[in-house]
Amino acid sequence: MVNRKITSFDLVLLIIMVGVMIITLYPFLNILAISLNDATDTVRGGIHIWPRQFTLANYSEIFGSNDRLIQAFGMSVLRTVVGTVTGIIASTMLAYTLSRRDFIFNRFIGFILVITMFISGGLIPEYMLIRELGLINNFWVYILPMLISAFNVIVIRSFMDEIPIELTESAKIDGANDFTIFAKVMLPLCIPVIATISLFLAVGQWNSWFDTYLYARANIDLTTLQFELMKILDNANISSGQITTQNAEVIANQTNPNSIKMAITIIATVPILVVYPFLQKYFVTGLTLGAVKS
Q1: What is the pLDDT of residue 85?
Q2: Which residue ranges in the chain fall short of pLDDT 70?
Q3: Residue-level pLDDT at 288
Q4: Are 228 and 63 in contact (CB under 8 A)?
Q5: What is the pLDDT of residue 273?
Q6: Domains and CATH numbers, the chain
Q7: Within 13 A of 83's CA, how many CA atoms are on the CB side?
């Protein structure tokens, strides 16, 4: 084993990396500390990465003020799982079709996909289309509009283009049909890019609340966690705006809206932080491998 001497460059690099790590982690730790700090004490300021007066009252206020949060959490999990799985299936099947050199319409369909990345019909035509499809106050309004993303299809197709064509030709010689080649040859080789796109889809589904506001707010069974948290945050901001200098002391008996904001941020962020480490090792590979041309 070779002993390597630590140089001044190594020390400088270590200091820089530690500084970058602190800068990266500080905002999240600060949000966590404020969310776990007593609301009255938070008004004084000066909280950094550790709560000065630890309490769970902010989280109790959030869950206690809305008895639908648990149901909304389950709906968010359901739409995230179903939306991610169906999105991956649809995107990979379309990407595989477009990656086939013998498919005569691949350039035309690819051009149409790119156009959708720059041109949109607008919110009103989209709402009219969803209404005519009967998706208002329907669970599938969370799934079908987000089923295909041009960016995701292009990334997956680029990855598939890097897979040697000899593999699919060998499978054809062995008698495999297109579905068998897709399921048993292409998909196992595309795990890195599938994991990457899964993360994109999961984050998009989990953080989405505006579609609930537009299409499903009349059905309380379809309310999502992000939508309910948005309403709580909006109510907290309204309450904060109603406080005047004459009754500012009322703050001492209620939760600080800033603490509510921080607690909501933690609630919305933690599930994705839990999932990300399992997909992180595929993330860079999935985004870069398909973009390299030999």
Answers
A1: 95
A2: 1-4, 65-66, 236-256, 279-294
A3: 56
A4: no
A5: 79
A6: 63-291 (1.10.3720.10)
A7: 25
Could you give the CA distance from residue 58 to residue 108 in angstroms, rounded to a whole number? 54
What gap in Å lies between CA 39 and CA 255, rounded to an integer? 5
Secondary structure in 3-state letters for the chain? CCCCCCCHHHHHHHHHHHHHHHHHHHHHHHHHHHHCECHHHHCCCCCCCCCCCECCHHHHHHHHHCCCHHHHHHHHHHHHHHHHHHHHHHHHHHHHHHHCCCCCCHHHHHHHHHHHHHCCCCHHHHHHHHHHCCCCCCHHHCCHHHCCCHHHHHHHHHHHHCCCHHHHHHHHHCCCCHHHHHHHHHHHHCHHHHHHHHHHHHHHHHHCCHHHHHHHCCCHHHCCHHHHHHHHHHHHHHHHHCCCCCCHHHHHHCCCHHHHHHHHHHHHHHHHHHHHHHHHHHHHHHHHHHHCCC
The pLDDT, as a whole number, for residue 201 is 92
In this predicted structure, what is the pLDDT of residue 57? 83
Distance CA 76, CA 224 (A): 5
Please give the pLDDT value at position 245: 38
For residues 43 and 255, the answer to whether their CB atoms sit within 8 Å is no
Give dist(CA 179, CA 161) in Å, integer.
17
With a CB cutoff of 8 Å and minimum separation 6, the contacts of 55 are 36, 37, 38, 39
60 alpha-carbon distance from chain centroid: 25
